[in-house]
Amino acid sequence: MACRQCGDCCDPILLRATKCEIRADRSLEGDDFILEHWHRVSKAIAFQKRPILRESHYKGRRYYICDRFDTTTRRCSAHDDRPPICRAFPENLRTEGRPLNLRAFPQCGSNGTTSSR
Ligand code: SF4
Ligand code: SF4
C-alpha cells in the first residue's frame, strides 16, 4: 500500500542496533548515512513523541531521530539520498519471518486500518 507520508517511521526511528554495532559491523547498507544523520534518543523522548511505542517496547529496541527529518512538514528532506532501510520500510519488518506487525504505526499506509490523510 502507498506511503501516506505520516512521518511516524522517522520520528523516532526504531532499530535494534546501536551505533557502535553498526560501525563495527559495516554490513548495513547505507550505514555511512545512518552513522552521520541518525542520533540516539532515550526511551522517554521516544515515548513522548509517540506514546503508543510504550506498549510495544522490548529490551534491545533503540530509538533514533534523523537530522534529515523535517519536523514541521513531517517529511524527509533527503528523499533521493535516504538509505535502503528507509526505502524498505515497512516491508523490511518481514525479514525475520515474522508477520507484518504495524501496531506501533497505526497511521501507516501499509497498516490497512487507517483512512488516507
Ligand atoms: S533519511 Fe529520510 S526517510 Fe530516512 S529516517 Fe531520515 S528523514 Fe526518515
Ligand atoms: S509509517 Fe508508513 S505511511 Fe507513515 S511515513 Fe512511514 S511508511 Fe509512510
Give the strand tally. 5
State the secondary-structure class. alpha+beta
Shape verdict:
globular
Largest sheet: 3 strands, antiparallel
Instruction: Determine the number of helices (DSSP H or I, runs of at least 4 residues).
Output: 5
Major sheet strand order: 1-3-2
Tell me the count of domains: 1
What's this model, at a glance?
This protein has 117 residues and is α+β, with helices and mostly antiparallel strands.
Question: What can you tell me about this protein's structure?
Answer:
The protein is α+β, with helices and mostly antiparallel strands and 117 residues long. The chain has one domain (13-94). Helix content is 26%, strand content 14%. The protein is built from five helices and five strands, in the order E-H-H-E-H-H-E-E-E-H. A three-stranded antiparallel β-sheet has the order 1-3-2. It has a two-stranded antiparallel ribbon with strand order 4-5. The two termini are 14 Å apart. 15% of the residues are buried. The mean pLDDT is 90.
Keywords for this structure?
single chain, 117 residues, alpha+beta, 3-stranded antiparallel sheet, two-stranded antiparallel sheet, 5 helices, 5 strands, 14% strand, binds iron/sulfur cluster
Helices and strands in order:
Layout: E1 13-15, H1 19-25, H2 31-37, E2 38-41, H3 43-49, H4 53-56, E3 62-66, E4 69-70, E5 75-76, H5 84-88
Antiparallel strand pairs: 1-3, 2-3, 4-5
